[in-house]
Design brief:
Layout lengths: L1 E3 L10 E3 L1 H4 L8 H8 L24 E4 L11 E4 L8 E6 L2 E6 L5 E10 L2 E4 L3 E2 L16 H4 L2 H16 L6 E2 L8 H12 L5 E3 L16 H8 L2 H9 L15 H7 L3 H9 L14 H6 L7 H9 L15 H7 L3 H9 L14 H8 L2 H9 L13 H7 L3 H9 L3
Parallel strand pairs: 10-11
Antiparallel strand pairs: 1-2, 2-11, 3-8, 4-5, 5-6, 6-7, 7-8, 7-9
């Protein structure tokens, strides 16, 4: 562990780098605790039962977080953050007009605050906080417990960090308890045990920039789509769920989720309900791109439904400028690639680095995809950084395929 100077961080303050500890600890949980830790995946909040805020006086204050829309239907009640790993120590929910922070291993409420919508903002506060955990080595408590820590600013700062680092997905330092400021090892162990692996740094008084992302919720509709639960999805739609509502994972919608899982029934129901076929996530992904990139389930039927609904074939991911034909080739999905080609997708399209779908199929050694692309007119002479498809095939040891591409002019 080491201290990073203010000049070495984007937050303008010294930060204790605790990532080597929080990111490297693999907790060994009892079977019952492991079951709880694993049980958050499909939990939209309905299974949590009655929730009550911690006892004791509420801490005055207010936190205002941006929403994706002023329309309440676009921010349903549900999960703000669902742990995917035992080292993620908190689950966050928006339910019954409150924001709840729960211990991921016990489901106990650690903090809660009433929340109300004000246009495209969620106004949160005052804060009811309970014990998050004692400092290690017998030190004074240092968590979300005002009654024992005596520091309301620390309590609010920790709650704010939980929401912004978990629900908004921002990389921010967590507040450093004063009792641990001179004990880097103890601070790292505290962060690992009570804040979890999303805590990579601690700072005494971090001056956080304004939020860069809106607060989004995984409601019943999105979770049903992820499970391929058509009955649950239809029930959520009947209850008024907004098909266009973005979820917590980079703004992916229920249609993104169903498309990526190859759930044709759910995709059809969502399209019939008015889900936008070209909804764009933060990374540029549309449902068609999410389906084309899938390495697991067969998504060819879903791709056909999306194409029939008018999905844009030339949509691109933001990171490298990949279109659906590139993603399907990378995933080795012949039936998906065939549907895209049949619908008129541009097989000559190049990524930002100049690579075509033929480059990708050749590098994988997929002679069947190369044949499919060549039959549609893909150019074996196309070069990316001076490399043709045959060069990539040869570099990966696919010598027969490389020879065939060279014989075709590449």
């Amino acid at each position: 562990m080491r201290w990073l100077s203010a000049e070495q961080t984007p937050w303008g303050c010294p930060v204790l780098d605790v990532g080597p500890v929080t990111g490297g600890v693999e907790p060994r949980l009892r079977a019952a605790v492991q079951a709880i830790a694993d049980g958050w995946t499909g939990e939209d909040g309905a299974g949590l039962g009655p929730l009550r805020p911690p006892e004791g006086p509420a801490l005055p204050g207010e936190l205002r977080l941006p929403l994706s829309s002023a329309d309440p239907a676009m921010t349903p009640e549900g999960a703000l953050f669902r742990p995917q790993h035992p080292s993620e120590r908190h689950a966050l929910y928006l339910r019954d007009g409150w924001v709840w922070a729960l211990d991921a291993h016990t489901r106990a409420v650690r903090a809660a605050a009433p929340a109300s919508r004000e246009g495209a903002l969620l106004v949160i506060g005052p804060l009811h906080a309970g014990l998050l955990g004692p400092a290690p080595d017998g030190g004074p408590p240092a968590g979300l417990d005002y009654a024992q820590s005596g520091d309301p600013a620390m309590v609010w700062a920790t709650f704010t960090w939980l929401l912004r680092s978990h629900a908004l997905g921002e990389l921010l330092p967590a507040p450093l308890p004063a009792a641990l400021a001179e004990e880097p090892r103890a601070a790292a162990l505290w962060a690992s045990g009570w804040l979890g692996r999303r805590c990579l740094g601690l700072a005494a008084a971090p001056a956080l920039p304004p939020p860069t992302r809106p607060l989004r919720v995984d409601g019943a509709l999105l979770l049903a789509a992820q499970r391929g639960d058509l009955a649950g999805l239809q029930a959520a739609l009947a209850a008024g769920a907004a098909p266009a509502a973005p979820g917590s994972f980079f703004g992916y919608t229920a249609l993104h989720a169903a498309a990526a899982m190859g759930e044709a029934g759910c995709v059809g129901a969502l399209l019939a309900a008015g889900a936008p076929v070209d909804a764009t996530a933060d990374d540029g992904a549309t449902p068609l791109l999410a389906a084309a990139a899938q390495h697991g389930p067969d998504t060819s039927a879903v791709v056909g439904l999306l194409i029939a609904a008018g999905a844009k074939l030339d949509a691109r991911l933001g990171a490298r400028g990949e279109a659906a034909v590139h993603l399907a080739a990378q995933a080795g999905r012949g039936p998906v690639l065939a549907r895209l080609i049949g619908a008129g997708a541009d097989i000559h399209a190049a990524t930002d680095g100049g690579f075509t779908a033929l480059h990708m199929a050749a590098e994988l050694g997929r002679a069947d995809l190369v044949t499919l692309l060549r039959a549609a007119g893909a150019d074996p002479r196309a070069a990316a950084g001076g490399l043709r498809p045959a060069d990539l095939a040869e570099a990966k040891g696919h010598l027969t395929l490389a020879a065939a591409l060279r014989a075709a002019g590449g």
